[in-house]
Amino acid sequence: MGSFDRHVDLVPSGRDGTDEYRPGDPACTSALHGLTTASPRQAALERLIDGYRSFRDNFFSRNRDTFARLAQGQAPEIMMISCCDSRVEPAIIFETGPGEIFAVRNVANLVPPLTPDGSAHGTIAAIEFAVCMLQVGHIVVLGHSCCGGVRALLSAHEGTAIGRWLQTAASARSAAVGASCSGARATLQRVCEYEVIRTSLVNIREFPFVRERTRLGRLSLHGWHFDIETGELQALDPEADEFVTLS
Ligand SMILES: [Zn+2]
């Protein structure tokens, strides 16, 4: 593999099949510092390189005109804010091609509120760019089932980067706990996933440049939820304030 013989392997080893975040767990941290030469994890990287070669020789080769046009600039109509989760890939779920979705992914598809101190934030900067420069017509917040970020939100992770990030959605946790009558974990998880989407939409609406364009009808906001196991896609009905399945 030439220059790829040595690489920093970012895939945690010793995983138990869950995506639960356990700060301090050697299985979650040791792999971040190791260099490997040959292993199943190396095979994962080689899989990427093989995939790139296939892309280059097939998809890219067949769509050279499209990529030549895209090299001149982008004009996507859609901005999508979705989770980092490896199981929720917008381009696959919505069968979109390059240039169609301006995408931001972060833990639990959160949009923080604009802060008075004006501190730097990547997600807010991306929204500002998409709305003010690209002038997208739609912003979609895409949540999903089995979200590890939401699961962490429902647990205690004080003192960690994830814990601080998820404080953005503290109100969503409170609303979910209040709304979840049965107390069943799966129900609370799903309700909280919905509430996180609602929280992100509320925060986006408060951005001055968003408020102006939505008032003029030039920008629409949407909250969607994807079920990994069933493939079901739900959309937040703003009138009923509930998620309904898209047929
Ligand atoms: Zn997630």
UniProtKB/TrEMBL annotation:
Q: Which Pfam families match?
A: Pro_CA
Fetch the InterPro entries from UniProt.
Beta_CA_cladeB, Carbonic_anhydrase, Carbonic_anhydrase_CS, Carbonic_anhydrase_sf
The protein's job, in short, is:
Reversible hydration of carbon dioxide.
Q: What is the protein's name according to its record? A: Carbonic anhydrase
Reactions catalysed:
hydrogencarbonate + H(+) = CO2 + H2O
Span list, region Disordered:
1-23
Family indicated by similarity: Belongs to the beta-class carbonic anhydrase family.
Q: What class of enzyme is it?
A: lyase
Swiss-Prot/TrEMBL cofactor(s): Zn(2+)
Key words of the record: Lyase, Metal-binding, Zinc
Q: EC number(s) on record?
A: 4.2.1.1
